[in-house]
């Protein structure tokens, strides 16, 4: 699942007429980079949620066949449902097995095929990165491949594998945050994790978008 329902307030005015996942980076929309990496990893079935200007996302990506994937869409009301609410709203499309979720407003060169399967009993596996300058406090701790909600902290990369059971108590169509669910699972020692040292950028502002664009163009 690619999370693409956010309004992108910090990206304004760029997102006033274009949804954030469709903003161009080195010649192609940000979300297309995700689709290409997912397809390269052998992932074919993709769910994308949307709210703000979501019709543009569907018009551009259509059924996903242009990128070797099959896309289904989970439409959300204006204002969206936040991360956990959006995932819970799409559970019927995601099935009964663990699924990968990627934030639509990040760029990362992680090979999704290298992510491990969830261990028996675990509810989530999170990818963590070193704290970027704009988020120096971080989110979670990582000790012996277990994720904890205490310092010293790393930053959640917006990439995770989840069991549907993590969202079972949420009411479909209602906003809900992901962090409380993860912290409850961490308290029960049901969250594994890994530290990723490759390129990862939270494309949250026009400045970081431009920085990423310059970097990727410099590689070609």
Describe what this molecule looks like in 3D.
The protein has a seven-stranded mixed sheet, with helices on both faces. The chain is globular. It has one domain: Spore Coat Polysaccharide Biosynthesis Protein SpsA, Chain A (Alpha-Beta Complex). 24% of the residues lie in helices and 25% in strands. The chain has six helices and 13 strands.
Describe how the helices and strands are arranged.
Blueprint lengths: L1 E2 L20 E2 L2 E2 H11 L4 E6 L3 H8 L8 E6 L6 H8 L1 H4 L4 E5 L2 E3 L15 E6 L11 E3 L2 E3 L6 E8 L16 H9 L3 E5 L4 E3 L3 H13 L2
Parallel strand pairs: 1-4, 1-6, 4-5, 8-12
Antiparallel strand pairs: 2-3, 6-11, 7-13, 8-11, 9-10
- Shape type: globular
Mean pLDDT: 93
The top level CATH class name: Alpha Beta
How many individual domains?
Answer: 1
Cα(first) to Cα(last) distance is 29 Å
* CATH architecture classification: Alpha-Beta Complex
Content-based structural category: alpha/beta
DSSP strand (E) fraction? 15-25%
How many helix segments? 6
Overall helicity: 10-25%
């Amino acid at each position: 699942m690619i999370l693409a329902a956010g309004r992108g307030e910090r990206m304004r005015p760029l997102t006033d007429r274009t949804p954030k996942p469709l903003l161009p980076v080195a010649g192609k929309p940000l979300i297309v980079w995700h689709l290409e990496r997912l397809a390269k990893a052998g992932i074919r079935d993709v769910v994308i949620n949307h709210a703000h200007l979501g019709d543009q996302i569907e018009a551009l990506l259509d059924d996903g066949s242009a990128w070797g994937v099959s896309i289904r869409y989970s439409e959300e009301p204006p204002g969206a449902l936040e991360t956990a609410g959006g995932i819970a709203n799409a559970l019927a499309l995601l099935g009964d097995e663990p699924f990968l979720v990627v934030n639509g407003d990040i760029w990362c060169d992680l090979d999704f095929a290298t992510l491990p399967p969830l261990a028996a009993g675990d509810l989530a596996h999170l990818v963590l990165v070193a704290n970027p300058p704009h988020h120096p406090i971080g989110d979670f701790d990582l000790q012996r491949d277990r994720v904890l909600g205490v310092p010293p902290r790393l930053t959640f990369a917006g990439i995770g594998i989840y069991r549907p059971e993590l969202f079972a108590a949420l009411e479909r169509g209602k906003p809900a945050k992901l962090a409380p669910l993860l912290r409850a699972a961490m308290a029960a020692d049901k969250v594994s994790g890994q530290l990723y040292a490759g390129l990862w950028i939270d494309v949250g502002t026009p400045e970081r978008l431009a920085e990423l664009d310059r970097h990727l163009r410099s590689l070609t």
